[in-house]
Design brief:
Blueprint: E1 2-4, H1 5-15, H2 29-44, E2 51-53, H3 61-66, E3 75-79, E4 88-91, H4 100-110, E5 115-116, H5 123-133, E6 138-142, E7 157-161, E8 170-172, H6 174-181, H7 185-195, H8 210-220, H9 223-231, H10 239-247, H11 249-259, H12 279-292, H13 295-306
Parallel strand pairs: 1-2, 1-6, 2-5, 6-7
Antiparallel strand pairs: 3-4, 7-8
Helix pairs in contact: 1-2, 2-4, 2-13, 7-8, 7-11, 8-9, 9-10
């Protein structure tokens, strides 16, 4: 089970009132909500291993260099470095959420759930790499549609999609994805490139929506086939669509590198197997439960994980 951690704790933050507070008065609604989400997930989709995938860099400069609008709307500030390094973009995170992120990391570690990130890469890339190289079935837990590209029935990689809320989880396999979007997993990154995604600042091809993108992929196979057809006056592509594709040539050259998740990152060794907690872990979990006023939520998640150990 690969958790798109930030997507889940943002969902938890907005789903649980900020009146949920620790004994010291600090809001812990995202923390409690995330613990409850993990409890629900491991109970409904029992894993043998679990990883909290992390955004070490939520907006990698190499993606911004290719598409400057990438996640621009989520930038709260830009910090200029003293040397020739690239500026650092600070993500717009709600005031009550930022102080909870270190608590989340501490609790995950105490629960024995490894937090895995990679320099200059997003959690999507961590998930892409782990899902692509796992030798056991994989459930990717995310609200990010870009990760639909990872669905692979031959390797038992599914996406458990949280985009409609935890009460309406969708399990996406090859057939379910085709039914939902009209494209295959192998076509999904090209589909997203054509359609664009306002939530990521991807402009897409002007005038090409989801329906047209899916039709083009059905007719021409992939983005390369679409671009080639647009350049071929003898192709069956409609003149209006041809003009839109040709006008977006510069964007279409760089966008696939941004949209496709990285699948070849290297990580230090880590242990993801769900195992019984040690007495030392239990003592630390008891301490953290009391410190942050999370006794009931922690009892539930500990029981759910212990049942799988």
């Amino acid at each position: 089970m690969l958790l798109d951690t930030a997507a889940l704790y943002f969902r938890a933050f907005y789903g649980v009132p900020d009146t949920v507070r620790a004994p010291n008065g600090q809001p812990v609604n995202a923390v409690r909500g995330l613990l409850d989400i993990i409890t629900r997930l491991v109970t409904e989709f029992p894993p043998t291993e679990i990883v909290a995938c992390w955004d070490d860099d939520w907006r990698p400069q190499w993606r911004v260099d290719l598409i400057p609008t990438y996640k621009t709307h989520r930038v709260a500030a830009v910090v200029e470095p003293p040397a020739a390094d690239a500026p650092t973009a600070i993500e717009d995170v709600p005031d009550f959420l930022s102080p909870q992120v270190p608590i989340i990391r501490e609790l995950l570690a105490a629960l024995g759930i490894p937090v895995i990130g990679a320099p200059r890469h997003e959690a999507d890339d961590v998930i892409g790499t782990l899902a692509s190289h796992a030798d056991i079935p994989v459930d990717v837990i995310t609200g990010d549609r870009d990760l639909f590209q990872l669905v692979d029935d031959s390797r038992a990689v599914r996406v458990i999609y949280t985009g409609r809320g935890m009460a309406r989880l969708e399990t996406l396999t090859y057939a379910a994805l085709v039914a939902k979007t009209g494209v295959t997993p192998a076509q999904y990154a090209d589909f997203a490139t054509l359609r664009g995604d306002a939530s990521d600042g991807l402009p897409g091809v002007a005038g090409i929506g989801e329906k047209t993108a899916a039709t083009l992929l059905a007719d021409f196979g992939d983005l390369d086939g679409i671009v080639a057809a647009a350049a071929d006056p003898a192709s069956a592509m409609a003149a209006g669509v041809r003009g839109k594709i040709l006008a977006a040539a510069d964007y279409l050259r760089v966008a696939p590198t941004v949209v496709n998740v990285v699948r070849d990152l290297q990580f230090p060794a880590f242990e993801a197997r769900i195992r019984p907690s040690t007495p030392e872990q239990d003592a630390e979990l008891d301490r953290l439960s009391a410190e942050w006023g999370l006794t009931t939520a922690m009892q539930r998640v500990r029981a759910a994980l212990l049942a799988l150990a």
